[in-house]
Amino acid sequence: MLLSVRIEDVLGERLERLAQDTHRTKSFYVKEALMNYIDNLEDIYIAEKRLEDLRVGRETVLSSRDMWNDL
Questions:
Q1: Is the Cβ–Cβ distance between 20 and 14 less than 8 Å?
Q2: Which of 71, 7, 65 has its CA nearest to residue 33?
Q3: What is the dihedral of CA 25, 28, 17, 6, to 10 degrees?
Q4: CB–CB of 11/20 below 8 Å?
Q5: Closest Cα to residue 38, out of 48, 30, 50?
Q6: What range does the domain containing 53 cover?
Q7: Mean pLDDT of the chain
Q8: Which residues of 5-35 are buried (b: 16+ CB within 10 A; e: fewer)?
Q9: What is the pTM of this model?
């Protein structure tokens, strides 16, 4: 997939410097940053969904003692 984005000059300069210093492409770092950011967003979404499920009673909490007893 091809994607075009505009970034601030300062950020672009930092990205350019990093790419030059490490002999990697700017695309490499943009993909890495995006993957990490999306991973974090997905984790946050899942946590918020679980918390909401807990608040409205769709999920329950199991104590560690009960968990070990069930094992």
A1: no
A2: 7
A3: 100
A4: no
A5: 30
A6: 28-71
A7: 96
A8: eeeeeeeeeebeeebeeeeeeeeebeeeeee
A9: 0.70
Asked if 29 contacts 15 with a C-beta cutoff of 8 angstroms, the reply is yes
AA identity, residue 70: D
pLDDT at 68: 95
- In this prediction, the residues of the chain whose per-residue pLDDT falls under 70 are none
CA distances 10 to 13, 16, 28, 35, Å, are 5, 10, 18, 22
Give the total number of structural domains in the chain.
1
Do the beta carbons of residue 15 and residue 26 sit within 8 Å? yes
| Residue at 41 is within a domain | yes
> Does residue 13 belong to any structural domain of this protein?
no
